[in-house]
Amino acid sequence: MKGLINRNAVVTGAASGIGAAIAKRFCDEGVNVLAIDRNAVSWADSYENVRSVQLDLTNGSTPGLVLENINSFLKGSCDILVNAAGVSAMAPFEETNAEVWDTTLAINFEAVTVLTRTLLPLLKKSDQARVIMIGSICSEFAPAGMSAYVVSKHAVLGLTRALASEFGGDGITVNCIQPGAIVTGITAAGFEGNSPFREHWENKAAIGRLGQPDDVAPLAAFLVSEEGRFISGHGIYVDGGAMQQG
Ligand SMILES: NC(=O)c1ccc[n+]([C@@H]2O[C@H](COP(=O)([O-])OP(=O)(O)OC[C@H]3O[C@@H](n4cnc5c(N)ncnc54)[C@H](O)[C@@H]3O)[C@@H](O)[C@H]2O)c1
Question: Which class does domain 8-185+212-238 fall in?
Answer without folding.
Answer: alpha beta
